[in-house]
Fold these 2 entries.
Entry 1:
Amino acid sequence: MSDPTGPNGRPLEHLAPPSHSRAAHGAHGYCSACPGIEPDTELVAWRLREDALHHAAGTTDQAPGPSADGPEDAELPFFVESTVKPELCPVCLTEEPSLLVSTFTATTESGTYEIGSFTYCLICKDIPRARTEVAHG
């Protein structure tokens, strides 16, 4: 049997070279600093790994239902959701929507709130801070 390879066809290295992600190399054998690996490839690998761990623990993606003896959202847990939409990048000024804007919201018993966001350009690989930062605290 041949040695496994990463998405770029190179052998997996579980010890990270200088300036590479030790965590990603330890978990996947590669990181986004490796030749031929894009940041979204590493992100998908982390997501698949976490999903596998989540399902192996026997947990589900379902929120608990309403309590029969209390208000409808009495058992509603704190959870975070992310939505992503493409926009024009203010750094590389490409004419195509290439900037992914991810917004995170948290839902609690008292409502749904925006708790943060980040941006990432698929063309220039920049992380512009053109969006208003959410105050913490």
Entry 2:
Amino acid sequence: MRRAIASVLALILAAALALPAQAAMRDEPKDFRGIPFGKRFNPGNTFACEMDSEEGLRCTRAGDDKHLCGVPLKSLSYLFMYHYLFTVDMEVDGQEGFDTIVKELTARHGKPTPQSGGTSMITGRNVDIMLYYDAARHTGEIGYVFKNLPCPVE
């Protein structure tokens, strides 16, 4: 009997080790306000865009709700690289608003991990959420980063 239990436990352990590691983030975002991560997207005429780099477009969208988790945003912009949403960058005034956003994102996605330079990150398989508060500017910075950006070979 013990041998049978040990065999079953060994099989369960082997199966668990064979599975790919799960990302730390719960409920990882698949899009940001209707713009998908990981799928080609053309920011149409509802966006105002300018070249950010040789391959990047920095865009804003006039119709965007300028709130995150109920907190007013100072700024909201999108960076598209190779026709994919690469980053969403937001700023919020003050520590209180930033703390409210961090609390809500933590409840949705999991606890942020401290990084160097005062940044924290909620790590996902495809998308990371970066959090930083700049005390000198009294500004919180929130960024969604798609980390599986296809890079064309030249």
